[in-house]
Amino acid sequence: MSGWTIYCQTCRPTGIQCGDCAERQQARRRPRAYWKARGRVLKAAREAGASCALAYDDVCTGTPTEADHIIPVSEGGSHDEANLQATCQACNAHKNLLSRRTSHPRQATRPQPRHPGLRDTPDTDTVLRSHGIDPEALSAKERAAALAALG
Ligand SMILES: [Zn+2]
Ligand SMILES: [Zn+2]
């Protein structure tokens, strides 16, 4: 299997794996410990009659068939049972999609929750002036230090 790269029709011509293919490849490389833990997590969920742990509103099919890494492997999450949760295939795929989009927050399908009581953060110059400090007289470093001191 070494030296063998997974491509789909879309990414084969480019010679660069797309996200889906990279993920599929990564999944195949998972150690036996993962597959064992996955089996236990899914069995436990089935026996408990648990439904999907992620339960994304629009996509969830309810029946857990996948073991999702709570902390993604790419972020140092382990293949231990403690880091796996039973989810449906649709939510698992949806979560992967969302995590891939985190570098482009505007594309996220879920709007950020609003906090009506929260006002816009005043800009730092205003904050400093309100404490009798002239922001113009400070270097960037001094400004940061002054703001940190003010909390
Ligand atoms: Zn591909
Ligand atoms: Zn689900």
From TrEMBL:
<dbReference type="InterPro" id="IPR003615">
    <property type="entry name" value="HNH_nuc"/>
</dbReference>
<keyword id="KW-0540">Nuclease</keyword>
<keyword id="KW-0255">Endonuclease</keyword>
<feature type="compositionally biased region" description="Basic and acidic residues">
    <location>
        <begin position="117"/>
        <end position="129"/>
    </location>
</feature>
<dbReference type="GO" id="GO:0008270">
    <property type="term" value="F:zinc ion binding"/>
</dbReference>
<dbReference type="InterPro" id="IPR002711">
    <property type="entry name" value="HNH"/>
</dbReference>
<feature type="region of interest" description="Disordered">
    <location>
        <begin position="99"/>
        <end position="129"/>
    </location>
</feature>
<dbReference type="Pfam" id="PF01844">
    <property type="entry name" value="HNH"/>
</dbReference>
<keyword id="KW-0378">Hydrolase</keyword>
<protein>
    <submittedName>
        <fullName>HNH endonuclease</fullName>
    </submittedName>
</protein>
<dbReference type="GO" id="GO:0004519">
    <property type="term" value="F:endonuclease activity"/>
</dbReference>
<dbReference type="GO" id="GO:0003676">
    <property type="term" value="F:nucleic acid binding"/>
</dbReference>
<feature type="domain" description="HNH nuclease">
    <location>
        <begin position="40"/>
        <end position="93"/>
    </location>
</feature>
